[in-house]
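To illustrate the input format used throughout this study, we show a single complete record. The first block contains the structure-token representation of the backbone; no residue identities are included at this stage. The design step must infer an amino acid for every position from geometry alone.
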């Protein structure tokens, strides 16, 4: 979507048709919250193919790019802790609930030690 957002103008509502549609109150909300999740992967893959053309997209490139975003976010947040689950991919709370709960418990313990539970009360 980034290429389409500012193709011909800034701000986006003055850009191409796609940009103007995305900026419309009801239509844009629907596109970004309903349509984009459905076609996003297809769009990303076609953009990657075009980027690497005429060569093929390297194996596992897409997964590695998303993983790199996690590492970058971890570095950007001063108190972040990145937990890598090598066997997990998608819907981690559903497929790895024990690991998620361990991470939540660890976070709550740190909040208690830092006396931040007043800000984030626990039941």
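Output of the design step:
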């Amino acid at each position: 979507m980034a290429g389409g957002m500012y193709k011909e103008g800034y701000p986006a509502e003055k850009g191409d048709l796609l940009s103007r549609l995305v900026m419309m109150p009801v239509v844009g909300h629907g596109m970004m919250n309903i349509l984009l999740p459905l076609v996003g992967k297809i769009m990303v893959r076609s953009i990657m193919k075009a980027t690497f053309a005429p060569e093929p997209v390297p194996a596992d490139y897409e997964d590695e790019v998303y993983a790199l975003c996690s590492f970058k976010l971890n570095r950007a947040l001063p108190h972040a802790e990145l937990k890598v689950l090598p066997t997990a991919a998608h819907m981690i709370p559903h497929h790895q609930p024990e690991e998620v709960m361990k991470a939540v418990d660890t976070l709550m313990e740190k909040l208690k030690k830092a006396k931040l539970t007043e800000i984030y009360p626990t039941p």
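Structural context for interpreting the output: The chain has two domains: 1-79, 83-123. Residues 37 and 112 are 37 Å apart (CA to CA).
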